[in-house]
Structures are given as C-alpha cells and as structure tokens.
C-alpha cells in the first residue's frame, strides 16, 4: 500500500468517507459513504502527498452544509463535528 493511499484514506475518513483501493486500474480509488456505502465518486492517486488533506479540509464546509457527500447525511454530521472541534 502506498503512502499516498494511506494519506487519501486517512483524509477522507475524517469526513466519514471510505476509500476503496482499485488495484486493477491503480490510478483512481472509489469513494464510498462510511455509513451506507453509497458511491461518492472517485479520487486520483496522482495527488501530491499532503494535497488530499488540504482538499478535504477545504471541502469540510461543503460537506457540513450537505453540498457534498451522501444524501444520508453522514458526511455532514462528521464535517460538523470536525468543525466544532477546531480551535
Ligand atoms: Zn450514506
């Protein structure tokens, strides 16, 4: 497992999204809701280390308002608790 995939997994897990490794293709990973497993698109693995964390950080507001993420609301819940725990 590459450090980049770890980084992607770690970053998305903070907003309640699971990352599936797609060994066959290797360049994209599927994103799924951490609660109901609905597909939420994909992410490339060519991101620079650390960049995915920055992208997720920038999207936290969008998740919190339900503009991104699953319609079951799991990402919104996670993003709101993330935002609430910020200094
Ligand atoms: Zn869901």
How is this structure best described in words?
The radius of gyration is 12 Å and the shape is globular. Helix content is 41%, strand content 18%. α2 crosses α3 (74-84). A three-stranded antiparallel beta sheet has the order 1-2-3. The protein has helices at residues 3-13, 51-64, 74-84; strands at residues 17-20, 28-33, 39-44. It has one domain (3-84). It is α+β, with helices and mostly antiparallel strands and 87 residues long. The structure holds zinc ion. Zinc ion (ZN) binds at residues 33, 35-36, 38, 70, 72, 74.
Q: Would you summarize the structure shown here?
A:
With 87 residues, this protein is α+β, with helices and mostly antiparallel strands.
Sequence of strands across the biggest β-sheet: 1-2-3
Distance from N terminus to C terminus (CA atoms, Å) equals 33 Å
The tally of beta strands, per DSSP, is 3
Residues in helix, %: 40-55%
Structural key phrases:
single chain, 87 residues, alpha+beta, 3 helices, 3 strands, binds zinc ion
Secondary structure layout:
Layout: H1 3-13, E1 17-20, E2 28-33, E3 39-44, H2 51-64, H3 74-84
Antiparallel strand pairs: 1-2, 2-3
Helix pairs in contact: 1-2, 2-3
The structure holds zinc ion (ZN).
Zinc ion is lined by residues 33, 35-36, 38, 70, 72, 74.
